[in-house]
Amino acid sequence: MSSTHREYVRQNMPLIGIGTWQIKKEQTLYEVIDAGFKNGYRFIDTAQVYQNEATIGRCLERLLPIHGLTRKDIFITSKLAPSNAGAEKAPKSIENSMKDLKTDYLDLLLIHWPGSWLKSEDEKNRELRKESWKVLEGLLESGKLKSIGVSNFEIQHLEELKNISSIVPSVNQVEYHPHFHQDDLVKYCQDNDIHFQAYSSLGSPTYREKLSQDEVIKELAEKYQVSIPVLLLGFAYCQGISVLPRTTNPEHAIANFQVTKLVISQEDIEKLLKINVDHKTCWDPRVVS
């Protein structure tokens, strides 16, 4: 079981998915997923804290038959909310996620955050992580979860899991872009057969403009004749790191899928890795005990 669920991810999870953070309006989700299915997307990423699982479930119920797809044709990830961490709340919350998404299994379930919300030094964090992971293990064993992983986990959190479980996370979903790339964490995940997955590839809404104004990024987007968003997605995608671009515009979703045809040379990847900026745009898990 320890490696089987990681093999499931390798065989079934596409390298690009539809991110849905901050998107709650049903018509918007319907239009973006509809455009995505038409153009090759087969992967949807959501989370309990996004408060849109039920909306996505209704969209999928309508859209799958329209596109000639079944549940098995798509990959669905959700994430356990920090407020639902632990043995008491996690099982019911995950059952509710599946009910809302109108599915009897999830392809991937992640622990969303290593702490109990933003209480970074809470002494309960370690125990809650352990309890949550044991819940995920049980649901993996039962088949309700096909694979289990984590999000925003640092090396110390991943090392801690080694001490309590023989089951290695299949995925670690982390902020990753040319202005924030934790090379040591990427290498750790690669060395331990944990798929490294990027979020905020385009920068958060408050930082997107800074990324788009970077001279190296602008130069390479021009060189490869792609938009800056596609170049930024390609930075991860061309390293075998999966991406989850979020947009409320169906045309942007279609444009983002162009990354699947982009090949950035290793030399140019290195140029992006050498940009001398280290700016994290989202909450920082490095401070979570």
What does this structure look like?
The chain has 289 residues and is α/β, with parallel strands linked by helices. It has a single domain (4-204, 240-247), classed as NADP-dependent oxidoreductase domain (TIM Barrel). The protein contains 12 helices and 8 strands. Strands 1-2-3-4-5-6-7-8 form an 8-stranded parallel sheet. Helix 4 links the parallel strand 3 (75-80) and strand 4. It is globular and about 50 Å long.
Keywords:
289 residues, NADP, TIM Barrel
List strands and helices in order, with pairings.
Blueprint: H1 4-12, E1 18-19, H2 26-38, E2 43-45, H3 53-66, E3 75-80, H4 90-100, E4 108-111, H5 125-142, E5 148-151, H6 155-164, E6 171-175, H7 183-191, E7 195-199, H8 208-212, H9 215-223, H10 228-237, E8 242-243, H11 250-256, H12 266-273
Parallel strand pairs: 1-2, 2-3, 3-4, 4-5, 5-6, 6-7, 7-8
Alpha-beta content class: alpha/beta
Strand order of the largest sheet: 1-2-3-4-5-6-7-8
Can you identify the CATH class?
Answer: Alpha Beta
Range of helix content: 40-55%
CATH topology: TIM Barrel
Please name the CATH architecture: Alpha-Beta Barrel
CATH homologous superfamily - what is it? NADP-dependent oxidoreductase domain
- How many E-type strands? 8
Amount of beta strand: 5-15%
Q: Quick check: average pLDDT? A: 95
Overall shape: it is: globular
Query: Could you tell me how far the N terminus lies from the C terminus, measured between alpha carbons in angstroms?
Result: 28 Å
Written as H for each helix and E for each strand, in order along the chain, the element string is HEHEHEHEHEHEHEHHHEHH
Radius of gyration: 18 Å
